[in-house]
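note to self: the first set is below, dont mix up w the second
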Amino acid sequence: MTFYIKQHDTSPAILATLSDATGAAIDLTDATVRFHMRPIGKTTVVVDAAASIVTAATGAIRYDWVSADTAAIGSFQAEFEVTFPDSSIETFPNDSYVRIEIINDIA
């Protein structure tokens, strides 16, 4: 999945549905979710912020951008880190990353 957004934009939000290897929805009841993003090929995280759970039972989440998140143009990798009620942590997707492309705006 590649998500495109223009520099300095804060909409649209990035939406995802978290699922396991069989495609079953991850139950996010009483869990917390964080959104992480870094430039491709770099180790420095440029976004580490809380994501919102839209529908816990179906694994639906969203991240609402702030202007600082999209200030730099470029290609980025992103992931969602879930902390479950038992304190276990799982990152989605767990076999790759969400690709984010922040492209230059005209004005």
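second set (the one i keep forgetting abt)
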Amino acid sequence: MLVVGYNKNEMAMLHLVKTYCLPALMYRCETWHMDRSDCHRLNVIWNNSFLKIFGCSWREDVSCLLFYSQTLPMSYMVDQRKILF
């Protein structure tokens, strides 16, 4: 996250990830056939981005960060897009 620099603002970085990375990650997810391993991979990618943004250890749980930032887990977002499609 070299774009933000030393005076980082976590919510601004999260907004950048949601704006630029999330659409690329979820492109055409309405037509995916996902099994448990695919769902797990997407959740790991999404959780690792939260851990990197907020500077947490890999051992910490990201559910409180997701709640704080009012964001759903990746598997729920994919299911939501499939329903809305």
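remember for set 2: Helices lie at 10-25, 36-54, 63-68, 74-84.
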